[in-house]
Design goal:
CATH architecture: 2-Layer Sandwich
CATH superfamily: YlxR-like
Number of strands: 5
Radius of gyration: 13 Å
CATH class: Alpha Beta
Order of helices and strands: EEEEEHHH
Shape: globular
CATH topology: Hypothetical Cytosolic Protein, Chain: A
Bound molecules: zinc ion
Largest sheet: 3 strands, antiparallel
Number of domains: 1
Low-confidence stretches: none
Structural class: alpha+beta
Mean pLDDT: 92
Length: 90
Amino acid sequence: MATNKIPMRMCIACKENKPKRELIRIVRLDDRFELDFTGKLNGRGAYICNNADCVEAMCKHKLLSKSFKMNVPMAEYDYLRGKFLENREN
Ligand SMILES: [Zn+2]
């Protein structure tokens, strides 16, 4: 039996390695960012835990700047946090 390797990714906030499916992908689309809940968006991505602590830490420490090697405006963090909270409530 071949073992199915679970793809692991590292959260940009807590740096823990977790199965990709348990993380939310953040994708850069040209000049903006989006949370990719479906895993279907193309683009450069970063991963973050599906929990508020990591999302807050990302916003507080502007962690996307490192991942994407660019200055990400605070408005993008606010947008992503909003999207995250919106998704949680559903
Ligand atoms: Zn995390």
